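stage 2 :: seqdesign
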């Protein structure tokens, strides 16, 4: 697993649980408002954190942390994601997965192996605008498959949208909300790239 950053403690990223956040490198989208380009564009990658170093940290936090959030980038593009998550689960941690929903087959297996305790899926835009916002040609029908899996899983979940007013409108947000039941959907502020870039560097330097 290519690990690009670590937040050692958070009370806001995993609902109801004190947790650590693991950032994976690499993404299959090129969103115009991306707030973590160091996790998306290979030429901006920092030196990955050795996986054994992460597990040493988690070992020290057993009994203190309850959960681990695996986010990105886009975690589901990594072939070793599920085995990586299984190792974390075996240590007694609850797992939250953040995903853009482009790999429903990975989600399906994660549920089948009971590896996730919470899933957050990003909804980038109304379906007809997806390619414009994400910067890649993409069949949005795949998103519907992932959304159905998530809703029917019986595992807690949320759908969320980063609202960048330079690329989305209030009408777009309402169109996205209509794809959900409304009660598991939230809109989050689009943070300046400079702010999140500095945050990621601090995370990396503290590893």
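stage 2 :: out
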């Amino acid at each position: 697993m290519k690990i690009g950053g670590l937040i050692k403690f958070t009370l806001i990223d995993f609902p109801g649980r004190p947790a650590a956040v693991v950032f994976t490198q690499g993404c299959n989208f090129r969103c115009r408002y991306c707030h973590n380009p160091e996790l998306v564009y290979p030429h901006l990658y920092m030196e990955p954190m050795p996986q054994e170093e992460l597990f040493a940290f988690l070992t020290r936090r057993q009994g203190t942390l309850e959960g681990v959030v695996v986010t990105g980038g886009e975690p589901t593009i990594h072939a070793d994601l599920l085995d990586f998550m299984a190792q974390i689960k075996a240590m007694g941690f609850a797992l939250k997965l953040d995903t853009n929903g482009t790999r429903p087959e990975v989600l399906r297996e994660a549920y089948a192996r009971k590896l996730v305790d919470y899933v957050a899926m990003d909804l980038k835009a109304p379906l007809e605008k997806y390619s414009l916002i994400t910067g890649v040609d993409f069949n949005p029908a795949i998103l519907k498959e992932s959304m159905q899996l998530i809703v029917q899983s019986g595992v807690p979940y949320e759908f969320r949208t980063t609202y960048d007013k330079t690329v989305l409108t209030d009408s777009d947000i309402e169109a996205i909300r209509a794809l959900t039941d409304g009660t598991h959907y939230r809109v989050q502020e689009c943070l300046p790239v400079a702010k999140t870039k500095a945050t990621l560097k601090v995370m990396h330097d503290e590893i």
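stage 3 :: structure notes
- DSSP finds seven helices and seven strands in the chain.
- The beta strands are 3-10, 19-24, 67-71, 94-99, 118-122, 157-163, 185-189.
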